Amino acid sequence: MSLALNGGSPVRTAPWPSWPPPLDDAQRELVLSVLESGRWGATQGGTACADLTAAFARRSGVEYGVAVGNATLGLFAALLGLGVEPGDEVIVPAYTFVASATAVLLAGATPVIADVDPVDLHLSPPAVEAALTSRTAAIMPVHLAGSPADMDALNAVAARHSLAVVEDAAQAHGATYHGRPVGGLGDAGVYSFQASKAMTAGEGGLVVCRDRAVHEAVWSACNVGRTLDGAWYGHPRVGWNLRLTEIQAALLLPWLDRLDDEIDRRNTFATAVERELAAMPTPAVTVVPQPPGTTRDSRHLVMLRVHVPFDRSFVLAAMAAEGVPLDGGYPPLGTMSALTEAGARAEHCPAAGAASREVLWVRQQMLMDDPAGAAHIAEALTKVLAS
């Protein structure tokens, strides 16, 4: 069968679902209400930001939340709130988005890039242990692709060495670990509302935590150094304006009512992908498994591992031509010269290196398709890899 890249017929011609989905009635009503109120900023007396942070904190199993302009700033504020200072080191996984490391640099600390588990691609507890020094102040597990990192093991490492734990939950809205929601499993958790995420206002983020003192420090960092009960022009700490707007919060707050249904839809599609891949004439692709303890995967992505040699650039181009575009995924953080030149320290990370060569992603909007669409992914992979 001729590849579409070479003039053949593509496997799929129908469009995949768009992302974000269309506004629902509740979003439209709340956004219009905020717009008409004229209270668009978070300090103008509106309630959308406060309601969103309270709802997210409850859903994360903690008491406190702070809405911020984006998740990178949220990670930065969380690190500051937990006392991370210049000269400290923060361990981050090698297979993650660059912002996990740049947020550490923003706080004046050193990102230490540690390897991931070779099977599930989440931060490896043994690799964390190997990367520890006397300067280590925190660990930043990432709930990659919507599945939770192995938090019991990582929290145990942190407890043995008196380290803070900041969960990068940017991709994991609604995920649970041993029945407990992510975000509330460490000392602070940070969600993203960037355009590709499971809930989006174009940009945005939110920090959750259980400790009041940490919450006050995070809130102050995000509110130009003010204190919760202090004067408007009182700035006893150094802080910044990192706030979310009421308009963004109005887009996000009603989304919580449909989030679980959308997670269910993506999980149904992911199950269909696994089934279709297993039925390939020569099974050469598998879904990267969930880490131990996963009880709900929010399926921001489905990560596929290819078990045969392949030309990565060619396969990505050929799959796109077949109407089944896949994403190439992350390069290992330690290979990014901008990070190492800025002071990041990279450990030996063979598992992340293998992932960058062998793993491809099915993006979130594709997972919102009818499960029958999973057959197109397997069919296109069979056709392209056979070439």
UniProtKB/TrEMBL annotation:
It holds the Pfam family DegT_DnrJ_EryC1. GO terms for molecular function: pyridoxal phosphate binding; transaminase activity. It comes from the Bacteria. Keywords: Aminotransferase, Pyridoxal phosphate, Transferase. InterPro entries: DegT/StrS_aminotransferase, PyrdxlP-dep_Trfase, PyrdxlP-dep_Trfase_major, PyrdxlP-dep_Trfase_small. Its cofactor is pyridoxal 5'-phosphate. The active site is at 197 (proton acceptor). GO terms for biological process: polysaccharide biosynthetic process. The modification N6-(pyridoxal phosphate)lysine is found at residue 197. Residues 1-20 are annotated as: Disordered. Belongs to the DegT/DnrJ/EryC1 family. This is DegT/DnrJ/EryC1/StrS family aminotransferase. It comes from Nonomuraea turkmeniaca.
